[in-house]
Write a structure and sequence with these properties.
FUR; iron; transcription; three-stranded mixed sheet; 17% strand; 2 domains; cytoplasm; DNA-binding; 6 helices; single chain
Length: 144
């Protein structure tokens, strides 16, 4: 998807929610928009330092927290990495297919999987507040 279109969409979401899309937050958003898979916070920090020499770990983590709170990014827990969500205009269940060979990540949105997980959790008396399901394997390109 077009990065400028995504940035414009993100600014609109921020305006609608009364949140500030600061220049640093926008730069981190753009860095993530330019990536195909997950990116670690320190890798993002090194890239950010190319234009923001004073950037510190706290700078990147504050930006990532903001982007996460607004639903702009997903955290890939198993890889301790972050990726841009291209569907941040609505809340949705998330399932990630993570290629262990090349690192590519595909995002799925199965309400059936989400519904089944919520039902199974409810049977145990558990209420799911958030869910991201991660599946590791090998993508079509790497299997060839």
């Amino acid at each position: 998807m077009n990065v400028e279109l995504l940035v414009s969409k993100a600014k609109q979401v921020c305006d609608n929610k009364g949140a500030r899309f600061t220049p640093i937050r926008e730069k981190v958003f753009r860095l993530l928009a330019s990536k195909q898979g997950g990116v670690g916070a320190y890798d993002l920090l090194e890239e950010l330092k190319l234009t923001e020499s004073g950037a510190k770990p706290a700078t990147i983590y504050r930006a990532l927290d903001f982007l996460s709170e607004l639903g702009f990014i997903h955290k890939i827990e198993s890889a301790n990495a972050f990726m841009l969500c291209h569907h941040f205009d609505h809340i949705h269940p998330v399932q990630l297919l993570i290629c262990d060979s090349c690192g590519h990540v595909d995002e799925l949105h199965s309400s059936i999987i989400s519904h089944e997980l919520n039902n199974l959790a409810a049977e145990k008396g558990f209420t799911v507040s958030a869910q991201t399901i991660e599946a590791h394997g090998q993508c079509k390109k790497c299997k060839q």
